[in-house]
Amino acid sequence: MLLAEDAVQAVSRFHTFDIFVILFTIVLAIALVRSLVAPTKNKFAIGFAGVSLLVFLVMDVLMVKYWIS
After folding, report:
1. What is the pLDDT of residue 44?
2. Quick one: pLDDT at residue 12?
3. Among candidate residues 27, 22, 28, the one with its CA nearest the CA of residue 62
4. Residues 22-59: tens digit of each pLDDT
5. Angle formed by the axes of helices 43-68 and 17-37, to 10°?
6. Number of neighbouring beta carbons within 10 Å of residue 56
7. Residue 41 Ramachandran class (φ > 0 left, ψ -120 to 50 alpha, else beta)
8. What value does the mean pLDDT take over residues 5-24?
9. What is the pTM of this model?
10. Distance between CA atoms of residues 32 and 47, nearest Å
């Protein structure tokens, strides 16, 4: 029975934290678009949101590759 539980854990590559990563990526994308559309542009906010979104998109790509492999 113990070996079967270890096998199930080894097969499951999806973690509940992955949902939060995807949701935060969506929030960052919305924040970047809103910063770009705003009449008064805050360059620091645009840069920070852009870099953060880039990091989270790379994390999302690596996370999905891990699911598939």
Report:
1. 96
2. 74
3. 22
4. 999 999 999 999 999 999 999 999 999 999 999 999 99
5. 150
6. 19
7. beta
8. 80
9. 0.79
10. 9
